[in-house]
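Listing 4. Sequential folding, example run.
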Amino acid sequence: MEIKGQVSMVLCGPAGMGIQTVESLLTKIFRQNGYHVFATPEYMSRVRGGMNSTEIRVSDHPVQAFVRRIDVLIPLAKGAIDHVAWRMSDKTVILGDRDMLGQEIDSDEYSCRHVPFSQIAGDIGNKVFSNIVAVGALAALFGIRADLLADFVGRFFQRKSKDIIEKNINAARAGHEYGDRFVSEGDLKITIQSSDSPIRQAFLSGTEAVGLGALAAGCTFVSSYPMSPSTGVLTYLAKQSNDFGLVVEQAEDEIAAVNMALGAWYAGARAMATTSGGGFALMCEGISLAGIIESPLVVHLAQRPGPATGLPTRTEQGDLELALYAGHGEFPRILLAPGTLQEAFTRTAQAFDLADKHQVPVCILTDQYLLESYYNTEPFDVHSVKAKKHFIETETDYLRFKITDSGISPRGIPGYGKGLVCVDSDEHDESGRITEDHNIRIAQNEKRLRKRNGIGKDTIAPTLWPEDEYKNLVVCWGSTFPIVTEALTRLNRDDTSLLHYSQVYPLHSDTAAYLEKAEKKIVLEGNATGQFARLLKMYTGIEADHRILNYDGFPFSVEKVVEQLTPIL
């Protein structure tokens, strides 16, 4: 049996078995050998027990999306096959240990190749090495030489003791012997055209892209209370703090985190609070505070399924309306929703400039799928990011909330100049002092709302792909972009285009024109009620003809998008 062109491999086992270590090792090996790689994990919300899996797609061309199918499955414990059975077919090949899995692997439904992972690992010294045996077997199926594999495994574990390094190398070699046997006997082989040299593109996760965007924008303060899946951004930036002069504060709760970020902006820093849905709910009063004191604020909201704790380690696009309406009262805001690693970098960097320029809260909407997926991407253009600060040196007659035609008052920093920078959470006059004068209330409220005119001019245009001429228009936002792109590529229709929004509020002024041009308007999003479709109708009066929704905690698969679009188109 030969698998050509590209392959979707899934490793599955209980938490604590090193599935993520295997993912990291394999993706590095494949990239070093000239393959394009995409990887995305799924895991249960348990420290021990339950089943975790990771999908690794290897291809001769760039791949950036989750697929449902499994070409090769490596189950590393009992229950693994049942856990991913919904993704398997009669074409799925199982590399597994019959002695461990028993009747689970003896099913007539699947093509099985016996590899005694546990026995090999036990002979080496510990069954914990089973996952490295699997690495060796997979490397052999790709024709990667045993000596190159051993060298790479040695370097990967170089910080371990000499004994551990040697045992990992032996485990990889032993697995390679089994995989090589399948290849030599013509039983199983993976043939994918690789480049002559290692892939030189960056290989990053969404978490790292968001963090790098913040650093490029001059972020100097990060506050957070850890909450999956946003915690990765906090820990990534903490690792960079010494090199970039970054203050990282793990707060006692999300209320403290958002207020710390506001205090940092008030003092002249560029600050971000990072959280997930439940934590963002606690930040709502702080976001409203940003509205009335007209403070810049950047909040990274990593979405996961709710309500309440919901599915804490899964993915969803269910917090759009939460971000849209968070905070009591009326005040301008901006919502960004990157769909790729490049956009995760650029939109995060832009968030700081937009917040600083317009003195409003800006929310970056990501999700578990985007944050924890890895793939090749071109290096980020850090030189295009201009971290321009928008505060002034104050004079003695400085008025923090001076009435202006644009709605933007000159922003001062305490200690930078001669003026008093007075802010207050109550309604206030131009100097910042509390008032209940209804005429001043009207003037200040209308001043704040006038910022919407300037924000509208800075709104980021949606991406139309591939054609300007179309009969059918698929509209999506956030992390679904690469998935829908691959699905439309498979459908290969010249009458259908994709319109992707990486800024979901305010909507770009051309939105209605894009929608009116289409005979069929299909909105695709990862929630149960069509939140973005509702937003489109609210601001354009145009209703989607069809909605494709997904809310099972998993990302859209390319196959599901194709299956849902086919009867509509």
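-- end of first protein; second protein begins --
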Amino acid sequence: MKKISVLFILLLTSLYSDIPERRIVAEWEPALGTMIRWPLGIPSDLVVELAEDEIIYVLVESNFYQNQATNNFNNWGINFENVVFINTDTYSHWTRDHGPQFAIGRDYWKVINQQFNGYPVESGCEDTDSQCDNEMILIDCTGTEFCNNQPEYASEGYDCYVNNAECEDFNGDGQIMDWLGDGYCDDGNWGIDFMCDEYSWDCGDCGGTNTDDNGYCDDELTLVHRNHIEGRPLPSPNRGWEEDDDTNIDFANQLNWDILDIPIYWTGGNFMTDGYGMGFSTELMVNENNMNENQFINMVQDYLNLDTYHIFDNPNEESIQHIDCLAKLVNPETIIIKQVPESSPEYECMEEFADSFYDLTTVYGRPFNIYRLMCPEIIGGPWEVNPVAAYTNSLILNKKVLVPQYGIPEDNDALILYAQAMPGYEIIGFDDSSGNPWYAEDALHCRTMGVFDPHMMHISHQSIRSEDILNNGTISLHAEVIDYSNVNASVQSVTLNWKYSSEDGPFGEIALSHETDNMYSGSFPLLQSNSTIEYYITATSVAGNAVSHPSAGWHLFNTLESPIGDINGDGFVNIQDIILVVNIILESEYVDVADLNSDGFVDILDIVLLINIIL
């Protein structure tokens, strides 16, 4: 009876709300514009594109920079009705990471002000050839296992965590450098805890007295760079990330929007959401908050109503591990995931990362549509390990998708795949020849941040999939519509727009019926078999607000070659098919097309299923 259960799920969709009372806005929702920073980190033609139809919110530190930006915008022909300057101290152009997320609900709108302190680097993927030898496996003061000869920040000169009998000058720089006595307090904040007798109390790096029965503290070698190791080059040696930490406050105050302060690091490039209470990050997000996964998840549930939070293992050997360089949610049910060449040392880890998404379900309780996007090797930044093109580091802005380009043949393949995953959107590629090239860990998405509409309308809709269709003549759909501009506002109309993909011309329109509360439903007409259908839903409020689902373009599905239950092959499912199944049963025959539940028998259960299909 599996097929009945699928139909049952489709028909009951309208009975339950999928939209949380309060939620974090997803990237594809209606946006007022984009936050950028002057001096720029993006090319001028991208700025022109961003300001063509929407507002650019430009972070500037002084009148000097504002005048400089104004002169350039005038030269580029930008409409100043689409320019808003935000006066704030700003240390970097990575507005995605220190910029705001937005929380919305009925009569509720908050600018989220998270903590921000730069770009910690973490290790992750390791080659199978570099698995830790038994003699190198050690346990820290809290029971955490670590591999002694695979220390974090090895690129800065460290040979081991602990200079014991097995440690050597592995990097060949003429000295053995370890974490004990290097000037940094290893009490767990750096991931390893050496505050106990076994490790000589970190040779006094945390203050206080220490005992050194192990002879770890006599090498007098120290490093002075570990707390300055960043995943991106520092904009200025004389300033700090804390200056970016206040941009959200200044932005919210200037727009007279309320602020929601959250006491955690929640870096924007390492977060994506489906807009319905589901969040995605790599484990670095948890680690930089110096808490365990349960503590982090409880925190985001309490503050941000993120009830489902997926934390993924760091898939890169060593990087800032931001998820926007690894994957891209393009709607609540579809995700694009990076694929690297098989020659990459991170190939197996990226495949494991991708595989983990196949085990997840959407807010509608079914698997994600997953696209894999080949990202070839590139010449990255000097700090990057195993750099590849960051095509997932793109920006969705209302009806457009802006994709970084690297001047290589695979650029066009990336645009084609986006067009397949997001049919009907305008897909635009951008090279960066402005002196700030796109990198593997730092591209277009990192340097832009969407600013969303607090008065938006919103549609939740479980899209029709070919595998869900039981009968070409009974394809129902449902939508939930909320108008955030006025909690008491009524929706004027909700319309299904559809056509055969093979046909030119306008979409046909079918009004959806108001069922209950914010729920609407309707059905397609009897559809041709073996056809591709394009459709989208529009909602319009009495006040004139409007929204579509998807925001641009359309959904696609294929009808069946012949309707399930069409036993006699006449193109219809009706009483004639029931009579034929009854005769098959009476004659004790087996006909494959009549075995609707695929249990190897043609019996009364198939008749029950056939009746349900007809009904």
